[in-house]
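Propose amino acids for all 407 sites.
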Protein backbone atom coordinates (compact mmCIF):
# COMPACT_ATOMS: atom_id res chain seq x y z
CA UNK A 1 0.00 0.00 0.00
CA UNK A 2 1.34 3.46 -0.84
CA UNK A 3 2.34 5.67 2.06
CA UNK A 4 -0.06 8.28 0.80
CA UNK A 5 -2.99 6.12 1.84
CA UNK A 6 -1.65 4.37 4.94
CA UNK A 7 -3.22 5.21 8.28
CA UNK A 8 -1.30 2.73 10.46
CA UNK A 9 2.25 2.68 11.80
CA UNK A 10 3.49 2.36 8.21
CA UNK A 11 2.69 6.05 7.78
CA UNK A 12 5.71 7.20 9.77
CA UNK A 13 8.09 5.22 7.58
CA UNK A 14 6.35 6.11 4.31
CA UNK A 15 5.81 9.80 5.00
CA UNK A 16 9.35 10.60 3.80
CA UNK A 17 8.30 9.78 0.25
CA UNK A 18 5.49 12.35 0.15
CA UNK A 19 5.96 15.97 -0.88
CA UNK A 20 2.86 17.36 0.84
CA UNK A 21 1.83 15.80 4.14
CA UNK A 22 -1.00 16.28 6.61
CA UNK A 23 -3.51 17.19 3.91
CA UNK A 24 -7.27 16.78 4.31
CA UNK A 25 -8.08 13.48 2.58
CA UNK A 26 -11.12 13.22 0.29
CA UNK A 27 -12.37 9.90 -1.09
CA UNK A 28 -14.37 9.75 -4.32
CA UNK A 29 -16.35 6.49 -4.47
CA UNK A 30 -16.22 5.46 -8.13
CA UNK A 31 -18.96 2.84 -8.46
CA UNK A 32 -19.51 3.35 -12.22
CA UNK A 33 -18.32 5.65 -15.02
CA UNK A 34 -21.58 7.59 -14.79
CA UNK A 35 -21.24 8.07 -11.05
CA UNK A 36 -17.59 9.05 -11.38
CA UNK A 37 -18.31 11.65 -14.04
CA UNK A 38 -20.82 13.27 -11.72
CA UNK A 39 -18.34 13.28 -8.83
CA UNK A 40 -15.79 15.08 -11.00
CA UNK A 41 -18.11 18.10 -11.05
CA UNK A 42 -17.92 18.17 -7.24
CA UNK A 43 -14.20 17.53 -7.10
CA UNK A 44 -13.53 20.39 -9.51
CA UNK A 45 -14.51 22.70 -6.66
CA UNK A 46 -11.45 21.48 -4.72
CA UNK A 47 -8.98 22.25 -7.50
CA UNK A 48 -5.93 24.37 -6.71
CA UNK A 49 -6.37 23.86 -2.96
CA UNK A 50 -3.08 22.50 -1.67
CA UNK A 51 -4.75 21.70 1.64
CA UNK A 52 -6.72 18.83 0.09
CA UNK A 53 -5.67 15.48 -1.37
CA UNK A 54 -8.27 13.56 -3.44
CA UNK A 55 -8.12 9.80 -4.00
CA UNK A 56 -10.53 7.42 -5.73
CA UNK A 57 -11.70 3.93 -4.90
CA UNK A 58 -13.88 1.59 -6.96
CA UNK A 59 -16.14 -0.73 -4.95
CA UNK A 60 -17.61 -3.81 -6.64
CA UNK A 61 -20.56 -2.89 -8.86
CA UNK A 62 -22.47 -4.62 -11.66
CA UNK A 63 -21.62 -1.73 -14.01
CA UNK A 64 -18.12 -1.06 -12.74
CA UNK A 65 -16.05 -2.86 -15.39
CA UNK A 66 -15.00 0.32 -17.21
CA UNK A 67 -14.10 2.26 -14.06
CA UNK A 68 -10.43 1.18 -13.74
CA UNK A 69 -9.69 2.29 -17.30
CA UNK A 70 -11.57 5.55 -16.77
CA UNK A 71 -9.59 6.31 -13.60
CA UNK A 72 -6.34 5.40 -15.35
CA UNK A 73 -7.11 7.95 -18.07
CA UNK A 74 -7.74 10.55 -15.37
CA UNK A 75 -4.35 9.81 -13.84
CA UNK A 76 -5.98 9.70 -10.43
CA UNK A 77 -4.61 8.16 -7.25
CA UNK A 78 -6.58 4.96 -6.64
CA UNK A 79 -6.98 2.99 -3.41
CA UNK A 80 -8.20 -0.62 -3.50
CA UNK A 81 -11.68 -0.76 -2.00
CA UNK A 82 -10.80 -3.19 0.78
CA UNK A 83 -8.03 -0.81 1.85
CA UNK A 84 -10.26 2.26 1.56
CA UNK A 85 -12.85 0.90 3.99
CA UNK A 86 -10.14 0.40 6.62
CA UNK A 87 -8.87 3.95 6.30
CA UNK A 88 -10.11 7.24 7.68
CA UNK A 89 -10.98 10.18 5.41
CA UNK A 90 -12.03 13.73 6.13
CA UNK A 91 -14.74 13.58 3.46
CA UNK A 92 -16.22 10.97 1.12
CA UNK A 93 -18.40 11.60 -1.92
CA UNK A 94 -20.67 8.97 -3.47
CA UNK A 95 -23.33 9.00 -6.16
CA UNK A 96 -24.64 5.56 -5.22
CA UNK A 97 -25.29 3.69 -1.97
CA UNK A 98 -23.55 0.37 -2.52
CA UNK A 99 -21.02 -0.35 0.22
CA UNK A 100 -20.73 3.21 1.53
CA UNK A 101 -21.91 2.22 5.02
CA UNK A 102 -18.46 0.66 5.45
CA UNK A 103 -16.62 3.95 5.05
CA UNK A 104 -14.90 5.75 7.90
CA UNK A 105 -15.61 9.27 6.75
CA UNK A 106 -18.32 11.91 6.82
CA UNK A 107 -20.20 11.12 3.63
CA UNK A 108 -21.98 13.43 1.21
CA UNK A 109 -24.32 11.56 -1.13
CA UNK A 110 -25.28 13.06 -4.49
CA UNK A 111 -27.63 12.09 -7.36
CA UNK A 112 -25.90 10.69 -10.43
CA UNK A 113 -28.31 12.13 -13.01
CA UNK A 114 -30.98 14.75 -13.52
CA UNK A 115 -32.71 14.17 -10.22
CA UNK A 116 -34.59 10.96 -9.45
CA UNK A 117 -36.29 9.71 -12.60
CA UNK A 118 -36.34 5.92 -12.41
CA UNK A 119 -39.19 3.97 -10.83
CA UNK A 120 -38.70 0.33 -9.84
CA UNK A 121 -42.07 -1.38 -9.72
CA UNK A 122 -41.40 -4.88 -8.42
CA UNK A 123 -39.35 -6.84 -5.93
CA UNK A 124 -37.77 -5.79 -2.63
CA UNK A 125 -36.18 -2.73 -4.26
CA UNK A 126 -39.48 -1.25 -5.49
CA UNK A 127 -39.72 2.52 -5.29
CA UNK A 128 -38.05 5.58 -6.78
CA UNK A 129 -34.32 4.95 -7.20
CA UNK A 130 -32.42 7.38 -5.03
CA UNK A 131 -35.39 8.15 -2.80
CA UNK A 132 -35.80 4.74 -1.16
CA UNK A 133 -34.75 4.19 2.42
CA UNK A 134 -31.94 1.85 1.36
CA UNK A 135 -30.58 4.63 -0.87
CA UNK A 136 -30.77 7.35 1.76
CA UNK A 137 -29.54 5.33 4.74
CA UNK A 138 -27.57 2.40 3.28
CA UNK A 139 -27.02 -0.32 5.83
CA UNK A 140 -29.02 1.78 8.27
CA UNK A 141 -26.24 4.40 8.36
CA UNK A 142 -27.07 8.06 7.76
CA UNK A 143 -24.64 10.20 5.75
CA UNK A 144 -23.29 13.53 6.91
CA UNK A 145 -25.22 15.33 4.17
CA UNK A 146 -27.46 14.63 1.19
CA UNK A 147 -27.02 16.98 -1.77
CA UNK A 148 -30.14 17.34 -3.94
CA UNK A 149 -30.81 19.52 -6.99
CA UNK A 150 -34.36 20.70 -6.27
CA UNK A 151 -36.32 21.58 -3.15
CA UNK A 152 -39.27 19.45 -4.37
CA UNK A 153 -37.04 16.37 -4.14
CA UNK A 154 -36.03 17.35 -0.63
CA UNK A 155 -39.67 17.00 0.38
CA UNK A 156 -39.93 13.58 -1.28
CA UNK A 157 -36.81 12.41 0.53
CA UNK A 158 -38.07 13.50 3.91
CA UNK A 159 -41.33 11.64 3.30
CA UNK A 160 -39.49 8.39 2.56
CA UNK A 161 -36.90 8.72 5.33
CA UNK A 162 -37.77 11.35 7.97
CA UNK A 163 -34.39 10.98 9.70
CA UNK A 164 -32.63 12.40 6.66
CA UNK A 165 -34.59 15.69 6.69
CA UNK A 166 -32.01 17.73 8.66
CA UNK A 167 -29.20 16.38 6.45
CA UNK A 168 -30.65 17.54 3.12
CA UNK A 169 -28.95 20.40 1.30
CA UNK A 170 -30.49 21.78 -1.91
CA UNK A 171 -27.37 22.63 -3.92
CA UNK A 172 -28.52 22.57 -7.55
CA UNK A 173 -27.39 20.58 -10.57
CA UNK A 174 -23.86 20.80 -12.04
CA UNK A 175 -24.77 19.57 -15.51
CA UNK A 176 -27.63 22.05 -15.77
CA UNK A 177 -25.26 24.88 -14.89
CA UNK A 178 -22.46 23.71 -17.24
CA UNK A 179 -24.84 23.33 -20.17
CA UNK A 180 -26.47 26.69 -19.49
CA UNK A 181 -23.07 28.41 -19.26
CA UNK A 182 -22.00 26.74 -22.53
CA UNK A 183 -25.05 27.49 -24.70
CA UNK A 184 -23.45 30.67 -26.15
CA UNK A 185 -20.66 28.48 -27.56
CA UNK A 186 -23.03 26.32 -29.63
CA UNK A 187 -21.58 27.55 -32.96
CA UNK A 188 -18.06 26.84 -31.68
CA UNK A 189 -19.00 23.27 -30.74
CA UNK A 190 -20.65 22.69 -34.10
CA UNK A 191 -17.52 23.79 -35.95
CA UNK A 192 -15.36 21.61 -33.71
CA UNK A 193 -17.58 18.61 -34.48
CA UNK A 194 -17.02 19.23 -38.19
CA UNK A 195 -20.54 20.36 -39.09
CA UNK A 196 -20.62 22.37 -42.29
CA UNK A 197 -22.72 25.48 -42.75
CA UNK A 198 -26.36 24.47 -43.06
CA UNK A 199 -25.84 20.87 -41.91
CA UNK A 200 -28.21 19.54 -39.25
CA UNK A 201 -27.18 17.29 -36.39
CA UNK A 202 -29.51 14.58 -35.09
CA UNK A 203 -28.44 13.05 -31.76
CA UNK A 204 -29.86 9.65 -30.85
CA UNK A 205 -29.77 9.10 -27.08
CA UNK A 206 -30.28 5.96 -25.05
CA UNK A 207 -30.43 5.33 -21.33
CA UNK A 208 -30.00 1.73 -20.15
CA UNK A 209 -32.33 -1.13 -19.33
CA UNK A 210 -34.83 -3.28 -21.26
CA UNK A 211 -37.20 -0.37 -21.89
CA UNK A 212 -34.57 2.15 -23.00
CA UNK A 213 -34.31 3.28 -26.60
CA UNK A 214 -31.15 1.20 -27.18
CA UNK A 215 -33.26 -1.79 -28.21
CA UNK A 216 -34.58 0.35 -31.06
CA UNK A 217 -31.16 1.40 -32.33
CA UNK A 218 -31.06 -1.75 -34.50
CA UNK A 219 -33.70 -0.17 -36.74
CA UNK A 220 -33.44 3.52 -35.81
CA UNK A 221 -29.81 4.11 -36.73
CA UNK A 222 -30.09 2.55 -40.21
CA UNK A 223 -33.19 4.69 -40.77
CA UNK A 224 -31.32 7.82 -39.77
CA UNK A 225 -28.52 6.92 -42.17
CA UNK A 226 -30.81 5.85 -45.00
CA UNK A 227 -33.60 8.41 -44.87
CA UNK A 228 -31.64 11.59 -44.12
CA UNK A 229 -29.47 13.02 -46.93
CA UNK A 230 -25.85 12.73 -45.83
CA UNK A 231 -24.84 16.06 -47.29
CA UNK A 232 -27.43 17.85 -45.14
CA UNK A 233 -27.63 15.71 -41.98
CA UNK A 234 -25.10 14.29 -39.53
CA UNK A 235 -25.93 11.79 -36.79
CA UNK A 236 -24.36 10.98 -33.42
CA UNK A 237 -25.37 8.27 -30.95
CA UNK A 238 -25.05 8.67 -27.17
CA UNK A 239 -25.31 5.33 -25.37
CA UNK A 240 -25.41 5.17 -21.56
CA UNK A 241 -22.17 3.85 -20.01
CA UNK A 242 -24.16 1.10 -18.25
CA UNK A 243 -24.94 -0.40 -21.67
CA UNK A 244 -21.23 -0.48 -22.50
CA UNK A 245 -20.32 -1.95 -19.14
CA UNK A 246 -23.22 -4.39 -18.87
CA UNK A 247 -22.75 -5.93 -22.32
CA UNK A 248 -19.05 -5.13 -22.87
CA UNK A 249 -17.53 -2.55 -25.19
CA UNK A 250 -16.71 -5.18 -27.81
CA UNK A 251 -20.33 -6.33 -27.97
CA UNK A 252 -21.75 -2.81 -28.20
CA UNK A 253 -19.34 -1.98 -31.02
CA UNK A 254 -20.19 -5.27 -32.73
CA UNK A 255 -23.92 -4.55 -32.54
CA UNK A 256 -23.34 -1.06 -33.91
CA UNK A 257 -20.58 -2.00 -36.33
CA UNK A 258 -22.44 -0.44 -39.25
CA UNK A 259 -22.32 3.04 -37.71
CA UNK A 260 -18.98 3.94 -39.28
CA UNK A 261 -20.08 2.93 -42.78
CA UNK A 262 -23.32 4.84 -42.25
CA UNK A 263 -21.41 7.94 -41.10
CA UNK A 264 -22.91 7.80 -37.62
CA UNK A 265 -20.64 8.87 -34.76
CA UNK A 266 -20.83 6.56 -31.76
CA UNK A 267 -19.72 8.65 -28.78
CA UNK A 268 -17.68 6.48 -26.37
CA UNK A 269 -18.76 6.24 -22.71
CA UNK A 270 -15.75 8.13 -21.38
CA UNK A 271 -16.35 11.14 -23.66
CA UNK A 272 -18.11 14.32 -22.57
CA UNK A 273 -21.50 14.20 -24.31
CA UNK A 274 -22.71 17.61 -23.23
CA UNK A 275 -21.19 19.69 -26.05
CA UNK A 276 -22.64 17.21 -28.56
CA UNK A 277 -26.07 17.68 -27.01
CA UNK A 278 -25.75 21.47 -27.21
CA UNK A 279 -24.83 21.21 -30.89
CA UNK A 280 -27.92 19.12 -31.76
CA UNK A 281 -30.73 20.29 -34.02
CA UNK A 282 -32.92 17.36 -32.93
CA UNK A 283 -32.68 14.89 -30.07
CA UNK A 284 -34.24 11.43 -30.32
CA UNK A 285 -34.19 9.94 -26.85
CA UNK A 286 -35.96 8.20 -24.02
CA UNK A 287 -36.72 8.65 -20.32
CA UNK A 288 -33.11 9.07 -19.21
CA UNK A 289 -31.22 12.06 -17.85
CA UNK A 290 -29.42 12.98 -21.08
CA UNK A 291 -32.69 13.42 -22.96
CA UNK A 292 -34.01 15.52 -20.10
CA UNK A 293 -30.93 17.74 -20.16
CA UNK A 294 -31.66 18.17 -23.86
CA UNK A 295 -34.63 20.36 -22.91
CA UNK A 296 -32.06 23.07 -22.08
CA UNK A 297 -30.63 23.24 -25.57
CA UNK A 298 -33.49 24.52 -27.72
CA UNK A 299 -33.49 21.34 -29.81
CA UNK A 300 -36.87 19.63 -30.39
CA UNK A 301 -37.08 16.23 -28.71
CA UNK A 302 -38.68 13.07 -30.08
CA UNK A 303 -39.10 10.05 -27.83
CA UNK A 304 -38.16 6.63 -29.19
CA UNK A 305 -39.06 5.09 -25.81
CA UNK A 306 -40.90 6.45 -22.80
CA UNK A 307 -42.08 3.61 -20.55
CA UNK A 308 -44.60 4.97 -18.07
CA UNK A 309 -43.96 2.14 -15.61
CA UNK A 310 -40.28 3.15 -15.26
CA UNK A 311 -40.73 6.91 -14.84
CA UNK A 312 -41.13 8.66 -11.52
CA UNK A 313 -44.55 10.31 -12.06
CA UNK A 314 -43.47 13.35 -10.02
CA UNK A 315 -40.33 13.95 -12.10
CA UNK A 316 -39.72 16.27 -15.06
CA UNK A 317 -39.17 13.14 -17.17
CA UNK A 318 -42.88 12.39 -16.75
CA UNK A 319 -43.71 15.89 -17.98
CA UNK A 320 -41.42 15.42 -20.98
CA UNK A 321 -43.14 12.12 -21.78
CA UNK A 322 -46.45 13.90 -22.40
CA UNK A 323 -44.89 16.94 -24.13
CA UNK A 324 -42.43 15.56 -26.69
CA UNK A 325 -43.84 13.72 -29.73
CA UNK A 326 -43.34 9.97 -29.94
CA UNK A 327 -41.25 8.61 -32.80
CA UNK A 328 -43.31 6.52 -35.21
CA UNK A 329 -41.95 3.56 -37.21
CA UNK A 330 -44.58 4.13 -39.89
CA UNK A 331 -43.78 7.66 -41.05
CA UNK A 332 -40.72 9.07 -42.83
CA UNK A 333 -38.13 10.49 -40.46
CA UNK A 334 -37.79 13.81 -42.24
CA UNK A 335 -41.52 14.40 -41.84
CA UNK A 336 -41.32 13.57 -38.14
CA UNK A 337 -38.35 15.88 -37.61
CA UNK A 338 -40.22 18.66 -39.39
CA UNK A 339 -43.29 18.00 -37.24
CA UNK A 340 -41.26 18.13 -34.02
CA UNK A 341 -39.69 21.42 -35.09
CA UNK A 342 -43.06 22.93 -36.01
CA UNK A 343 -44.65 21.83 -32.74
CA UNK A 344 -41.73 22.91 -30.57
CA UNK A 345 -42.80 25.37 -27.89
CA UNK A 346 -39.83 26.89 -26.00
CA UNK A 347 -41.96 27.80 -23.00
CA UNK A 348 -43.10 24.18 -22.55
CA UNK A 349 -39.55 22.88 -22.58
CA UNK A 350 -38.38 25.69 -20.27
CA UNK A 351 -41.05 24.65 -17.76
CA UNK A 352 -39.68 21.09 -17.86
CA UNK A 353 -36.00 22.03 -17.62
CA UNK A 354 -36.86 24.41 -14.79
CA UNK A 355 -37.77 21.38 -12.70
CA UNK A 356 -34.25 19.96 -12.91
CA UNK A 357 -32.93 22.43 -10.34
CA UNK A 358 -34.33 25.05 -8.01
CA UNK A 359 -30.85 26.62 -7.69
CA UNK A 360 -29.96 27.50 -11.30
CA UNK A 361 -26.45 28.86 -11.63
CA UNK A 362 -25.68 28.32 -7.95
CA UNK A 363 -24.42 24.73 -7.81
CA UNK A 364 -20.77 25.70 -7.41
CA UNK A 365 -21.43 28.24 -4.67
CA UNK A 366 -23.77 25.98 -2.67
CA UNK A 367 -21.76 22.79 -3.06
CA UNK A 368 -18.37 24.29 -2.27
CA UNK A 369 -19.76 25.80 0.91
CA UNK A 370 -21.16 22.39 1.95
CA UNK A 371 -17.97 20.42 1.20
CA UNK A 372 -15.67 22.84 3.00
CA UNK A 373 -17.99 22.91 5.98
CA UNK A 374 -17.76 19.11 6.24
CA UNK A 375 -13.99 19.28 5.75
CA UNK A 376 -13.67 21.85 8.52
CA UNK A 377 -11.83 24.29 6.26
CA UNK A 378 -12.45 27.86 5.22
CA UNK A 379 -13.37 28.27 1.54
CA UNK A 380 -10.85 29.76 -0.90
CA UNK A 381 -11.30 33.54 -1.20
CA UNK A 382 -12.63 33.57 -4.76
CA UNK A 383 -15.90 32.84 -6.49
CA UNK A 384 -16.24 29.28 -7.87
CA UNK A 385 -16.81 30.07 -11.54
CA UNK A 386 -18.87 27.79 -13.77
CA UNK A 387 -16.53 27.02 -16.66
CA UNK A 388 -18.00 26.46 -20.15
CA UNK A 389 -17.49 23.02 -21.63
CA UNK A 390 -14.39 22.35 -23.74
CA UNK A 391 -14.64 21.89 -27.49
CA UNK A 392 -15.44 18.31 -28.51
CA UNK A 393 -13.36 16.37 -31.06
CA UNK A 394 -14.67 16.02 -34.63
CA UNK A 395 -17.49 13.54 -35.12
CA UNK A 396 -15.19 11.62 -37.47
CA UNK A 397 -13.04 10.73 -34.44
CA UNK A 398 -15.88 8.56 -33.16
CA UNK A 399 -16.44 6.70 -36.44
CA UNK A 400 -13.10 4.97 -37.00
CA UNK A 401 -13.59 2.35 -34.28
CA UNK A 402 -16.69 0.95 -35.98
CA UNK A 403 -14.80 0.25 -39.19
CA UNK A 404 -12.20 -1.66 -37.18
CA UNK A 405 -14.88 -3.65 -35.33
CA UNK A 406 -16.57 -4.62 -38.58
CA UNK A 407 -13.37 -5.46 -40.47
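Proposal:
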Amino acid sequence: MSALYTTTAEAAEGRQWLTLVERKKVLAVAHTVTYTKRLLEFLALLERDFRVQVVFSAPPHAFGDEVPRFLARLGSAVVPWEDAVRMTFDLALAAGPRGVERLRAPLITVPHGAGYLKRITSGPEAGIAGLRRQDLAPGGTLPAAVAVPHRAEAGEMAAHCPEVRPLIHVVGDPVYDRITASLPARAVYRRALGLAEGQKLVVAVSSWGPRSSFGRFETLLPRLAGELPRDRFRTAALVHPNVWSGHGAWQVKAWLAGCGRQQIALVPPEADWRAVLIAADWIIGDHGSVTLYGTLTGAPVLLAASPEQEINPASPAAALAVTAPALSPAHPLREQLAYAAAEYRPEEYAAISGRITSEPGRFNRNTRRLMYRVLGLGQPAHDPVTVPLPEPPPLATWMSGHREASA
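The domain at 182-357+398-406 is CATH 3.40.50.2000 (Rossmann fold). The first strand starts at residue 24 and ends at 29.
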